[in-house]
Amino acid sequence: MYWKKESLSLVISILLFACAVYLVQDFRSQDSFDYSRPYSGKLEFQAGAVIDGDSLRGFAVLSGETVVYARYRMSSEEEKLQMESLMDGSVFQVSGVFEAPSPPSHRFSFNMADYLQHNGAVSLLTIQSIERAEANETWHNRLLDRRDALKHHIREHFPESLAAEAEALLIGERENMDPEDQRVYQTLGISHLFAISGLHVGIASGLMYGILVRLHVRKETAIIVLLIVLPLYAVIAGGAPSVWRAVSMVTVVLAGKLFGFRLPIASVMLTSIIVFILWNPYAMYKIGFQLSYGATFGIIYSLKFLSRIQSTVKVGFVITFISQTTLYPLLLFHFYELSLSAFVVNSLFVPLFTFLILPANFLLLFLTAVCQPVANFVFYFYEPLRGLIGQFMIWLAELPYQLWNPGKPGGVIVLILIASVYLFYCTAERKFRWRQLLILLVPALLFTALPYLDPRLKVTFLDVGQGDSALIELPHRKGVYLIDSGGLLRFDTEDFKERKRPFEIGRQVVAPYLKGNGISSIDTFIISHPDADHAEGAEEIFRLFPIGELHLTPGSASNALMVELAPDAAEARVVFPGGGSNWAVGETQFTYLSPMDAEYEGNNDSLVLLMKAGDYSVLFTGDLEAEGERDLLAPYGDELAGLTVLKVGHHGSKTSSSEEFLAALKPALSIFSTGVDNRYGHPSPEVVERFNEMELDTLNTAENGSIRLLFDKGELKFETMR
């Protein structure tokens, strides 16, 4: 009953098989390369390598079948065009050096070392030069050429507003999808509709089978054609795990129909998993693999329950519920949040994509290939209709309280959540009662409540490279304050170097830390001053989180960066606090010590914030320099004496951290917020020497990664990423 018809021996065999796969991975990863020496030899990029701006990057195979992640910087528009034409069907003779991946800035940010390991790659290879390229005419590369041809065909013959979606739906190419559109899809929980899966393969198979039968092709012959075409389509569609899962299962079912045997669908799925993992053990790490098979597992093992439902509409809703419920522990583990609206929205959009949007794209692809005028006629009606659907999606995504963001669960919590899902299914299958939902809700609510039960005061100095960003979490999460958001200096560059998706500190470093800790809104966002390395990332923060108040240094509203930020910050209450402004939450007190006037002139007009909680005190100085430090000592010198933690002003520049200031404060710990090998040479060697001579302890985000301080019961503890 509890494992359907599967025997205990089968379950144990699967577990043992999974363990054996790890040994296979270790065996496959062994090679004889000396990674301390430069590399000179052959290299072939794998499918999925991309050219973005002047950067070429992706997984590649070296001579000896060793997999690496290769990066190459192109020097001209001509070279970029040449590499675009050669990348998928060539073997290159290259020279380069192996490099160790940079460590992540915090435990929720992208981890390059894990990414390499989970894709079977052994190292990073920075290509310094490409000597020549040789054609590599394999059947796989020919199929990839067909994929590129389809991609260019779509871009040339579809309207611009529809091309990116058509690429995603038809060939699994999501490179050109707008980030804001993707945010809408994530909020609604329908991103899976744009990844080729069983839905797409089923529709494509049905259309092809129907056309062949209409052309008076024998059914057996039509099935044989499908058995040949489907694997080819899987390669052309990008070869994602969800594609191969769907293709492999459909292939087994069709083969059974052709040769007169019938396997239980559960056995088909389990066989597909085993074959897939034997072929590519690293697929287990891919999110698409886990989600695709996870959803299929939930639906297959709920068929008995679904068979009792008579209403087609209700069946669709229940399938959506089963898929989302089965996957929610995995979704939280990988993305830290879950779309609550997905349970309802998918019941609307899955049929819409199944019966309208996806068939329309297949039809339009066919028409643009055989008769463009007819295609243009259909586009005339379909494009505005799709536009209305898109506007409806945006309206839905703007509705509040759609995302549940409890944070990233640890291993034990994940197991508890998965166990609750399994127990719910076991009880609901006998006879569903509404109170059984408590089996799901109670563990989920307890996990959500954990931060609100934590009595510790937490201060985190995020590693945002050459910039500043700090997060304050009050005890029992009575308040969440973000001080600065980091950012990058953007310089004008040649057109061919412009990236479609430039690196964004706010979205890719700060936001994951907030979401990973279960923070879904920010009470107060403090921008100490409008320098790019403190505020350029604020735009993404405003787009991803509700903000209660925005604190800006007086006189900075007319700064160009703040003017650019104003539309995104429109919903926040904007405050310009001056020296002496203060507030308190419980036992924690906050006081702005600077600036004392309303005219913004530069670094010394940074908002300087003092936080005090019992015997602890932390001073956030922005980019305060020596002159501003002297101005603080006269009114606040006694109050600042014996400071617990100092966020060192201006990243440790030689214009800050004067001896007089440090002697007066004598901080127990000082934090430098700098980037590795930054162009400014921060922190200045003479400033570092000053701290050393005064025997003041320091930490640096460039060396230690993100630094989290925990204040609890008269004790200060700190955690570093590195």
Strand and helix map with partners:
Blueprint: H1 8-28, E1 39-45, E2 50-52, E3 55-62, E4 67-73, H2 77-86, E5 90-99, H3 112-118, E6 124-135, H4 139-157, H5 160-171, H6 179-188, H7 198-214, H8 219-236, H9 241-259, H10 265-279, H11 287-300, H12 303-307, H13 312-335, E7 338-339, H14 342-370, H15 372-397, E8 403-404, H16 411-430, H17 438-453, E9 457-461, E10 470-473, E11 480-483, H18 505-516, E12 522-527, H19 532-535, H20 538-544, E13 547-552, H21 560-565, E14 573-575, E15 582-585, E16 588-594, E17 608-613, E18 616-620, H22 626-640, E19 645-647, H23 659-665, E20 669-672, H24 685-693, E21 698-700, H25 701-704, E22 707-712, E23 715-720
Residue runs with pLDDT of under 50 for 5 or more positions: none
Q: What general form does the structure show?
A: globular
Strand count, sense and barrel status of the largest sheet are: 8 strands, mixed
Beta strands, count: 23
| Proportion in β-strands | 15-25%
Give a quick summary of the entry.
With 722 residues, the chain is of the alpha/beta class. Helices cover 48% and strands 17% of the residues. It is globular.
Pick out its properties.
about 725 residues; alpha/beta; eight-stranded mixed β-sheet; seven-stranded mixed β-sheet; 25 helices; about 15% strand; globular
Mind explaining what this structure looks like?
The chain has 722 residues and is an alpha/beta fold. Helices cover 48% and strands 17% of the residues. It contains 25 helices and 23 strands. The protein has an eight-stranded mixed beta sheet with strand order 14-13-12-11-10-9-22-23, with no helix packed on it. It has a seven-stranded mixed beta sheet with strand order 15-16-17-18-19-20-21. The protein has a five-stranded mixed β-barrel with strand order 1-3-4-6-5. The mean pLDDT is 89.
